[in-house]
Design a protein that fits this description.
Elements (H helix, E strand, L loop, with lengths): L11 E2 L2 E3 L2 E3 L6 E5 L6 E6 L3 H18 L4 H17 L1 H12 L3 H18 L10 E6 L2 E9 L2 E5 L7 H12 L3 E5 L6 H13 L6 E3 L4 H9 L3 E7 L2 H13 L3 E5 L4 E5 L5 H13 L9 E7 L6 H9 L19 H16 L3 E4 L18 E4 L6 H4 L6 E7 L2 H10 L2 E2 L1 E5 L3 H10 L4 E4 L15 E2 L2 E2 L8 H5 L1 E9 L17
Parallel strand pairs: 1-5, 8-9, 8-11, 9-10, 11-12, 13-14, 13-19, 14-17, 16-17, 19-20
Antiparallel strand pairs: 2-3, 4-5, 6-7, 7-23, 12-22, 15-16, 18-21
Helix pairs in contact: 2-4, 2-6, 3-4, 3-6, 4-5, 7-8, 9-10
The structure holds 3-oxidanylidenepropanoic acid (FK2).
Length: 506
């Protein structure tokens, strides 16, 4: 990552959180946090030193000694308070998020809200962290399980959901009795820090939640640290695979939710208007910067004739700064993201795909420096083209055609990614075939972005996920705990200990 060029005294600095205190980093390496609609520098984020990472882990290690024994009801009540504080600060959190990330204010509220749902889930821990018991596994012998916290856990989160994804991680880790070190995205850590302040206000004790900022060196320090027991990661396949390999080699439990190329099949019997509206929202919402965005539409049979209607609907979306009313598509997060996405559009043209709608260089009055790319649609896209083979992470929809549902399913299953998918159809039989045969984690039936609510677990198959257990739902309890089985036998011989065992029935 590049060090900043902004003079140190001119902007606020983002703090580290160590041992319950927000502290200034002693690093010499900083990066600017930039509003992607205006290029205004909002603050500077430090790249923490190895000593600061060690201090954060040591503080979490120390806090674990008492936190692991905190009563389950006391842990639950902190998260009940926390969900209330998040609700009360929703507008403020969304405004910070929009300023640093770019998404529209309603999308920013959605980002916070979907994290809030996981906090609500955490406050239900009393019904989740339960062991099992088998009575009389032998005469007078019982076996039961304890789900005990692991120790210090860590989370590495991406730029695209700077509220939701940290909230996928630290509430569930902490409520199960662990302590936590979070490394938020260095591109937009400010809303994450505000959420951490509220978490402390809710009653999370010093050292239970810590935050370090940084890039590759901090990620590697987390992967290698001997006192970190588990890591949850969301981000690109390249970085996630590196984290998984490095951290599992160091003996940690790791879950990595990674890249995607989400296909939506549109059958000719689908409800046309509903399906095209859903496609447009799912492809271009959040400027396509989400791991569950629809990036390939596979139009089957006569649905291939619907491309002009799809283009017309996409043209109605309003591009602009996230803070302005009525905007549908905000800017990309950074100039680098802008260069990458527009470069891939050029590549799509060069590879022979048909550019049905070109979103490059949209006019956005008042924001001539913003990283804006409007909805872009290619047809005639095939495997082997760069725009099909790579995750674009921008508002670009690739349209492919298929003769039959079988051909469409085969295409999706041949893609290396398995994050999300959807089918649009009015046929129960087609939908059932799809749900049975598709090898993808999240499946939608007339639902374009089937992210599961927190009582289920986010999942993924093939290249989209490493590690067995998901980040919330029931699976996360297993991820953040070690199962201990206890087999116990009590001798019915209390008199040997001088106790009077006579039971009076009078
Ligand atoms: O980014 C991952 C999750 C989502 O798209 O909702």
């Amino acid at each position: 990552m590049d060090a900043t060029t902004t003079p140190a005294t001119q902007v606020a600095t983002v703090k580290l959180l160590i041992g319950g205190k927000f502290v200034e980093s002693k690093t010499s390496e900083w990066r600017d946090i930039v509003n992607p609609a205006t290029q205004e520098v909002l603050a500077r984020v430090p790249f923490a030193t190895q000593a600061e990472v060690d201090a954060a882990v040591a503080s979490a290690q120390d806090a674990f000694k008492t936190w692991r024994k905190t009563a389950i009801g006391a842990r639950a009540r902190i998260f009940l308070k926390y969900q209330q504080l998040i609700r009360e600060h929703m507008g403020e959190l969304a405004a910070i998020l929009t300023a640093e990330q770019g998404k529209t204010l309603p999308d920013a509220e959605g980002d916070v809200f979907r994290g809030l749902e996981v906090v609500e889930h955490a406050s239900n821990i009393g019904n989740l962290q339960l062991g099992e018991l088998a009575n009389n596994v032998a005469g007078g012998v019982d076996t039961y399980t304890l789900l005990q916290p692991l120790g210090v856990c860590a989370g590495i989160t991406p730029f695209n959901f700077p509220a939701m994804i940290p909230l996928w991680m630290f509430p569930m880790a902490i409520v199960t009795g662990n302590t936590f070190v979070l490394k938020p995205s260095e591109q937009d850590p400010m809303v994450t820090m505000r959420l951490c302040e509220l978490a402390l206000e809710a009653g999370i004790p010093p050292g239970v939640l810590n935050v370090v900022h940084g890039g590759e060196a901090v990620v590697n320090a987390i992967c290698d640290h001997k006192d970190i027991k588990a890591i949850s990661f969301v981000g690109s396949t390249k970085v996630g695979t590196h984290v998984y390999n490095r951290a599992t080699l160091a003996g940690k439990r790791v879950q990595c939710m990674m890249g995607a190329k989400n296909h939506a099949i549109v059958m000719p019997d689908a409800h046309k208007d509903q399906s095209l509206n859903a496609l447009v929202g799912a492809s271009f919402g959040a400027a396509g910067q989400r791991c569950m965005a629809v990036s390939v539409a596979v139009l089957v049979g006569d649905a291939r004739k619907w491309i002009p209607d799809l283009v017309e609907k996409a043209k109605t979306l309003k591009i602009g700064a996230g803070i302005d009313k009525g905007v549908d598509v905000g800017p990309l997060v950074s100039c680098a993201a802008y260069e990458r996405v527009t470069g891939l559009i050029e590549r799509g043209v060069a590879d022979g795909a048909t550019l049905e709608l070109d979103g490059r260089k949209p006019t956005v009055p008042g924001y001539d420096k913003g990283n804006f790319v409007g909805p872009t649609i290619f047809s005639g896209v095939k495997p082997g083209m760069t725009i099909y083979d790579q995750e674009i992470f921008g508002p670009v929809l690739c349209v492919a055609g298929a003769e039959s549902i079988d051909e469409a399913i085969e295409m999706i299953n041949a893609n290396p990614n398995g994050n999300g998918t959807a089918i649009f159809t009015q046929s129960g039989a087609a939908a059932r075939r799809f749900q049975e045969d598709i090898d993808v984690g999240q499946v939608g039936i007339n639902v374009p972005i089937p992210v599961p609510v927190p009582m289920f677990s986010f999942t993924g198959s093939r290249g989209s996920k490493l590690g067995d257990l998901g980040p919330y739902g029931k699976q996360v309890i297993m991820f953040y705990t070690q199962t201990k089985t206890v087999t116990a036998r009590w001798f019915d011989d209390a008199t040997a200990h001088g106790l009077n065992t006579t039971i009076s029935l009078k």
